[in-house]
Design brief:
seven-stranded antiparallel beta sheet, 36% helix, five-stranded antiparallel beta sheet, single chain
């Protein structure tokens, strides 16, 4: 337990190592680091320390470990489960200044980058070399790659290309005792010892602070077509997804929006959506090495759809922007409609999406709760957002545990689990036993103790 009387000495020791100018204690600045994108969660840290190098990260962690003060790593602050919120106070170690793309190695098709680099910047840099970094979280223009690695971030293109975990082939990281460790490298195969990369992926900043990342890149597709397809029901939409996959057509993206999400975005953007009377939309992206390949896939895909004449095919950048505008605006529309809401990202087998959504929707309607549902139909990752509305705040807080358990149990019953890409963080830690056995949780705790015996790193998360 940290003794607050030691705060002046801690600041002095940190200042001696990295400079007093990068230790921030002003209340206005601390407020910025007291929250991420999680609805209704704020905790003010005692200080923020901005690191520039792995050696500085090492010094910061070693000193904080000696003082037994909590340390919360932070990248872009775009998480939605409280992973970057300093729930126990202490020190926020900000990695925003470690934002260099060190190298795009086109010969080996890898990128070497620091954790503070914005994900979209990696994609742009890779594309300049004719390469592609596929993972595309919804917040890709503001989230950092370090946070993506810590969360195991996904995105719409996961159906064809996978998630962040499929592209990390090397890491440099710092343990709470200050040890700097490098694992992996510019190679894909590695059977040398335990898979430390796999352990750190999705560890949510509870085991180590990542200071360098090596990413595998792939050749960029030369052609892309986007489609918007309306349906009269979610059942029809998901049945079509199953037909597409059965035909061995692998779109890079298959997204869905149900009617309530379409209406909400239409209101937010103040414009009519295509097919406004539909009960579901699928947004599908096909990409490939030639236009002929994509055209062939488009013909085969259209045979899977009963109402093929209604498909909107977008080939130009302006057309693509129009049909994706609604999907990309959902989160902002929800925030605009109601700043206090519950955001869940459960995952189920693709074929169970209609049953799962109906069960959850019926339950929420029985409680007179307004919900918005959308997500990644190609991999079963369903986003369920429940708005507080006019409910009194105290009543809302009391209701949240019941809502979470109701959603999680229905996901588990349908063969899924409680989170697909947002992680456990602070908000879901009490519900981990619903999804994992006591033996699994016990093993996770032993891993945590091996990396962080003094339990200073991102406390209050996961467990």
């Amino acid at each position: 337990m940290f003794d607050q009387n030691n705060m002046p000495k801690l600041i002095q020791d940190l200042g001696d190592r990295i400079g007093r100018d990068r230790i921030l204690t002003d209340s206005d600045i601390l407020d910025k680091y007291s929250k991420d994108e999680t609805s209704d969660l704020v905790r003010v840290p005692d200080m923020v320390v901005r690191a520039r190098t792995p050696e500085e990260v090492s010094d910061i962690l070693r000193i904080c470990n000696q003082y037994r003060i909590p340390v919360t790593p932070r990248g872009g602050g775009t998480g939605v489960t409280g992973g970057a919120v300093p729930v126990d106070g202490g020190v926020v170690i900000s990695l925003e200044l470690m934002n260099r793309i060190i190298e795009i190695d086109s010969k080996n098709m890898v990128a070497v980058i620091e954790p503070g680099v914005i994900t979209h910047a990696i994609q742009k840099a890779a594309l300049e070399h004719g390469l592609m970094y596929p993972p595309d979280p919804a917040s890709l223009e503001s989230c950092s790659i370090g946070g993506n690695v810590a969360e195991g971030a996904g995105g719409p293109r996961a159906v064809k290309y996978g998630t962040t975990k499929d592209y990390v082939i090397g890491l440099e990281f710092v343990l709470p005792d200050g040890s700097i460790i490098t694992t992996g490298g510019k190679f894909v195969k590695n059977a040398t010892g335990y898979n430390l990369i796999g352990i750190l992926l999705g560890s949510e900043g509870t085991l180590a602070v990542i200071t360098k990342i090596i990413l595998r890149l792939i050749p960029a597709p030369s052609s892309t077509i986007d489609l918007l397809i309306p349906f009269q029901s979610i059942d029809e939409a998901v049945e079509t997804v199953c037909k597409i996959i059965h035909k061995k057509i692998v779109p890079s993206t298959i997204e869905f929006m149900e009617r309530d999400s379409i209406k909400l975005v239409s209101k937010y953007l103040n414009e009519e959506m295509p097919f406004p009377n539909s009960n579901a939309h699928l947004l599908v992206q096909l990409d490939g090495t030639s236009e002929d390949d994509i055209r062939n896939d488009l013909v085969r895909l259209s045979l899977c759809i009963d109402n093929a004449d209604d498909i909107i095919v977008a080939e130009t950048k302006a057309q693509r922007e129009r049909i994706w505008r609604a999907r990309r605006a959902i989160r902002e529309a929800i925030h605009n409609e109601d700043p206090i809401f519950l955001a869940e990202d459960t995952v189920v087998p693709i074929s169970r999406i209609p049953v799962f959504l109906k069960e959850v929707k019926d339950y929420l309607n029985s409680r007179n709760l307004r919900s918005v549902m959308f997500g990644h139909a190609g991999d079963g990752n369903v986003h369920i957002d429940i708005l507080k509305g006019d409910m009194k705040y105290e009543e809302w807080k009391r209701l949240l545990p019941e809502l979470k358990i109701a959603i999680y149990k229905r996901a588990l019953k349908n063969g899924g689990t409680i989170t697909g890409e947002h992680g456990i963080g602070f908000l879901r830690k009490n519900y981990l036993p619903l999804a994992l056995s006591p033996e699994e949780i016990g093993l996770l705790r032993r891993i945590k103790a091996a990396f962080d015996p003094n339990m200073i790193l991102n406390p209050g998360k996961l467990f």
